[in-house]
Structures are given as C-alpha cells and as structure tokens.
Amino acid sequence: MMSKKSINRSVVKFVAGVTLAAVLASCSGSGTPTASTTGETTPAATQTTAAKDAAPAASNLSGNVTVDGSSTVAPISKAVAEEFAKANPGVKVPVGTSGTGGGFKKFCAGDTDISNASRPIKKAEEEDCKKNSVEFIEIPVAVDGLTVVVNKENTFAKCLTVAELKTMWSPDAQGKITNWNQVRPDFPDAKLALFGPGADSGTFDYFTEAINGKSKVSRTDFQPSEDDNIIVKGVQGDKNALGFFGVAFYEENAATLNAVEIDGGAGCVAPTAENINTGKYSPLSRPMLIYINKKSYSRPEVKAFVDFYVANQSKLAKEVGYVALPSAADALIADRVKTGKTGSTFHDAKAGTPIVDLLK
C-alpha cells in the first residue's frame, strides 16, 4: 500500500504556461483493476478537505468506477475518490497502481473505466485500444516536475546540464561512466551510484525520453525500484548517490535530500512550483493525465465521478503536493469531456508547449 505520509507542499498559483504533452486515451468497458506495485511510486494521498464545499448533494447512485495505472497520479485520483464518496457512498472507486504501462494494458483491453498516466499514451497503446474498440478522452489533471536528487553531503552537484545527465544515463554510459569526475572534470574522483524507477514506470519513460531522446533507452546498470521509498533510502545511504522521482515525493523528503538544479539551456533552474508552472524547469516538467473510456462515461456513476474530478482536480492536486493546472485550462478540459472529444493531443507534443495551447 502507498504511504500515508503527509506532504510538505507549497501553496501554488499556476502562471500561464505549463509544459509538455499529455495523453488521453479512450477505451470501452469496465472491470475491476488489480492493485499492484509494478508502477512508479509517489506519496499517497492524504486526508483531503479542499473539495468539501464543492461536493455534490447526496445521491442514490450505485456501482463501481474502476481506476488503475500510474501510482504517481494515484494520489490525485484517490483524493478525488475520497471526496466523491462522501456524497455518493453507493459508488465504489478502487484505485489500482499497476504503473502507467500496466494501466494502459488493462484500459485498452476494456477492463477499466479510467487510466492514470504519468506520460502520454504511446501509439502502440492507442492501437491496442483501437483493436478493442476502446475510445478514450484524454485530460491533464496536474503538472509534475521530475526531480534529480543527491545525498545531503553532496555539495558539488548543485546544478547539472541535460548533457551531463545524458552522460550519466545514456546506454553508452553503461560500465564506462562510473565516477563523478567523468561527468565533469572538477567533480571528485568518487564512485557514482545511480538509483531510479524501474522500466515499467511512466516516470522512467518520461525521464529517459527527456534526457536520452527516447523512452526506455537507458543504461541498465543502476539500482531500479518501483518503490520511490527505496530510491530515497539508497540516495540517503550513499554520499555519492544520485536518483530521480516526482517533485511531490522530493518535497516529502527535502530534509534528507538535496534537489539538483537543471540547466536545460537557459541556466540553472530549481524544481519549484513556479518554475514547473511557467515551463522554466525544462525539460523535466510533465503533465499528469487521466484517460476516460468514452463508453464507460455513458454510465451515470462514471459520469458523476468524472465530472466531479474535473471540477475539483486543481484543489486536490495541490493538496497532495502537485502543481495545479492554469485556470485557463479548466473550461477547456470541461468542454473536452462534455463534447466527448477522443484521441490523444499530447503524445507528439513538443516539450515546453503550454498545456492550454495543447487543449485548444
């Protein structure tokens, strides 16, 4: 089960340009997802209060709304489900954490109503949905900044360029780039210990595509884990270690880790909420997405849940430590759901493209 730790969050106002691409895939059918730990892990949703005033009047709805996929997005979906249940106790909303890729397998087979995703849907996954006549509506629900972290005793790696991260993580680095001074000559001659999410993780996919140019193209001689707590402990326990995961999980562990600033070509930028929102934190800012099975949306309990999600995602995303979407995105998202616009807008989007522009 995911940790119930509280998250140290910053109160955030989204400035107009959020970065990157999101994917919405639609699939039909519904079933019961099996919760697992094969996906990327981030802090669990805490008890939320932000949407209390917006909760719908008590209803007589009943049934199940099945949600699975990214455990990075799961805290938001769980927070929404928790608030929704207060006015709709007859509707059960189990949220599985099979990982982004595992979630899409179930979704495109027609086994789930909603798929959480920490990266846009891939063309091959879209094809799987199409084969099974699963149409989907894609909407972003928050923004995340992948955060590179080092041990508290590391005082030299305060900022790294994208090129230096590629030197560390490219397939060509395997067995060759083993010391810090191979990354930058003025770094110490100390063994480089790397920790990161496993290959089934959407976080791993997004990081490797942003840094190495293609998802899943990475060195493999690092310490992988689907549990971000393991990555945290690995970096905490080795003064020469480096790892990465979502900003919300970093904020929970900021007292014991250092966040590395990233130079994407315009100088060193820290993964703060403002920098993630405005697109300055490039190329490691990314949208958090959900994909809604269009056929499922015709069921009243699914429609009620999705509509509640759309109305409250900004408040609840901030409560669980993520960056809320710009207010200009709200009406565009609501319209996309209302009109049933299907297909993915985000999978081919250029890094740095504002989310509002993509939604248009």
From TrEMBL:
Keywords from the named record: Phosphate transport, Signal, Transport
The UniProt record lists the keyword Transport: yes
Q: Which residue positions does the secretion signal occupy?
A: 1-21
Tell me which Pfam families the record gives.
PBP_like_2 (PF12849)
Which positions fall inside the PBP domain?
56-312
Superkingdom of source: Bacteria
Which InterPro entries does its entry note?
A: PBP_domain, Phos-bd, Phosphate_ABC_transporter
Described function: Involved in the system for phosphate transport across the cytoplasmic membrane.
**UniProt record similarity statement:** Belongs to the PstS family.
Protein name, entry field: Phosphate-binding protein
Q: Which organism is it from?
A: Pseudanabaena galeata UHCC 0370
